[in-house]
Design brief:
Blueprint (H helix, E strand, L loop, with lengths): L1 H19 L8 H11 L15 E4 L3 E4 L7 E10 L1 E2 L2 E2 L7 E10 L2 E8 L3 H9 L29 E5 L2 E5 L6 E3 L6 E4 L16 E2 L5 E7 L2 E7 L5 E8 L11 E2 L3 E6 L2 E3 L11 E3 L5 E7 L2 E10 L3 E10 L5 E8 L3 H12 L9 E7 L6 E5 L3 E6 L11 E7 L13 E6 L5 E5 L4 E10 L9 E9 L4 E8 L7 E6 L9 E6 L1
Antiparallel strand pairs: 1-7, 2-33, 3-6, 3-34, 4-5, 6-7, 8-9, 9-10, 10-11, 12-13, 13-14, 14-15, 16-17, 17-20, 18-19, 20-21, 22-23, 23-24, 24-25, 26-27, 27-28, 28-29, 30-31, 31-32, 32-33
The chain binds fe (ii) ion.
Length: 502
């Protein structure tokens, strides 16, 4: 009985997405974009790939600086990459089919391979020669009926090796398993037979013991996933959300809790598939933070913070007084979703939302919350992976702080390390020719300090018209990259990634 209920609830969630994208699309964005990219070279990583250019490989990237012998492993990234078929271009950056990038680092060499995730959706659309199913921001006419969440799954948000599998992750459906050896797609993961297509979100957290925690939402329901270090399902608890139907993108864990920001975002289904106010914060609604007990998610507390859109958390931990501390990046409006991410597809760089790093202190006894905000436009908070769910002082962030002309303010041009205790920052500016992607912290083998680490991240360099993999020393960020690997091509700008040591 439970099996059938879960499957039906998952389908109910997709029904909402399908309904929400029924409005009429606006054509001509492919032409808009082609004209814009000729004027603004920083738009190149948003052009996207096709079925042929979605397969890239280079066995030996051009190396500069000194790649340390101690850094060995596989660095993955994922992001939307295929935006056009049969002359039709998606309207929203989030709509594109996912492409996973793999950099293999070691033995004095760095190689790259990139492949589109061959989801059921991508394969059907490749056969048809056109888009078939509606996406978050684009309505597609005349497609087949939606059979479940994975009919829409573009697997475009994150890539993570765990339990011997490489997972390409998306917010609204299954994780897709890929072969780490060649990035070939193995198929959607069913953690248990009765849990097929139940959403497994894109921001799982792997704790210090190798246990993976994740969430998924479908309709009013929320599932909390617990996967052991071998990649086997321990538990999938199903509960209800205190703000059903909103966006739930990221989550945090402490030793005892799962912590989920619930921004008051609604999709306005009466608005066209692109255009102002399709995505908006609901007036008068707060940012809720749901804190659930890992052992029984029905034991929960809901905190209320000032209204804002939150995509990403940094970390959470519990202090000796029992308070839960959560770091996250939030903006006071939904302009990123509603304007920036739409503009990128049409070739317009629009003003950024005021994305700030914030620290919430949640008093589990009283239900009161306090909030502290740091100055500066940032996104993509990452931390020492060994301290996930534990006290940690430093966050690595993508950042923009210089008024370089023509960028619209929203493209990141640097990286920043933030001391969340003292407020101190260290920065490196890649310059006005750069579009900076998420950088992650990779601990140096045998060292324990949070800054005994490298920062690893990709940047689109408009001067080279190429993507560059950068390595920086976290203890000397202001010195810039200690090593670089230059690709002989550019990659679509991605969202998130992770490193697996070898
Ligand atoms: Fe994300």
């Amino acid at each position: 009985m439970m099996q059938r209920r879960l499957a039906l609830q998952a389908l109910a969630g997709v029904g909402a997405v399908s309904l929400a994208t029924r409005a009429t699309a606006r054509p001509a964005e492919a032409a808009d974009f082609a004209a814009a990219i000729a004027e603004q070279p920083l738009l190149a990583p948003f052009k996207g790939v096709d079925d042929a250019t979605g397969e890239r490989a280079c066995a030996a990237l051009q190396l500069q600086g000194r790649w340390p012998a101690a850094l060995r492993g596989r660095f993955y990234r994922n992001g939307p990459a295929l935006f056009e078929r049969a002359g039709q271009r998606y309207h929203h950056w989030f709509d594109g089919d996912g492409m996973v990038q793999q950099f293999v680092i070691g033995d004095g060499a760095v190689s790259h391979r990139g492949r589109l995730v061959r989801t059921a959706k991508l394969q059907a659309e490749q056969r048809a020669g056109r888009f078939l199913v509606s996406a978050l921001g684009t309505h597609i006419e005349g497609g087949p009926p939606i059979s479940g969440p994975d009919a829409l799954n573009v697997a475009n948000t994150n890539a993570l090796e765990h339990g011997g599998r490489l997972l390409a992750l998306w917010e609204g459906g299954s994780a897709y398993a890929l072969d780490p050896a060649d990035l070939s797609t193995q198929g959607p993961v069913a953690w248990r037979k009765d849990l097929q297509q139940v959403p497994f979100s894109a921001h799982p957290k792997v704790d210090a013991n190798g246990h993976l925690w994740n969430i998924g939402t479908f309709g009013p329901r929320m599932v909390v996933w617990h996967i052991d270090p071998q990649g086997q399902l321990v538990d999938a608890q199903v509960g209800t959300s205190p703000f059903p139907g909103g966006m739930v993108h990221d989550m945090a864990v402490t030793e005892r809790h799962v912590v989920v920001p619930l921004p008051p975002l609604r999709l306005n289904i009466d608005q066209p598939s692109v255009g102002p106010r399709r995505f908006a914060l609901v007036p008068g609604e707060p940012l809720r933070v749901l804190v659930m007990d890992k052992s029984d998610i029905r034991r929960q507390r809901v905190f209320e913070l000032p209204p804002q859109l939150v995509f990403h958390v940094g970390n959470a931990h519990t202090s000796a007084d029992g308070h839960v501390h959560l770091s996250f990046v939030g903006a006071p409006d939904a302009r990123f979703l509603d304007e920036q991410a739409v503009g990128l597809m049409a070739g317009h760089l629009r003003p950024a939302s005021d994305n700030r790093l914030q620290m919430a202190e949640l008093d589990m006894a009283s239900g009161r919350a306090t909030l502290r905000a740091f100055d500066g436009l940032v996104e993509f908070p990452r931390m020492d992976p060994r301290r996930i769910g534990l006290p940690a002082r430093w966050l690595a962030l993508g950042a923009a702080w210089k008024p370089y002309p023509g960028r619209g303010g929203g493209l990141l041009h640097g990286v920043q390390l933030q001391d969340t205790v003292s407020g101190r920052t260290a920065r490196w500016d890649y310059g006005e020719h750069a579009v900076v992607e998420e950088h992650i912290l990779v601990p140096k083998p045998g060292r324990d300090g949070e800054l005994d680490a490298w920062l690893l991240g990709t940047v689109y360099d408009a001067r080279r018209q190429a993507t560059v993999l950068n390595l920086l020393d976290a203890a000397h960020l202001e010195d810039g990259p200690v090593a670089q690997a230059v690709l002989p091509y550019s990659l679509p700008l991605g969202f998130h990634g992770n490193f697996t040591p070898s």
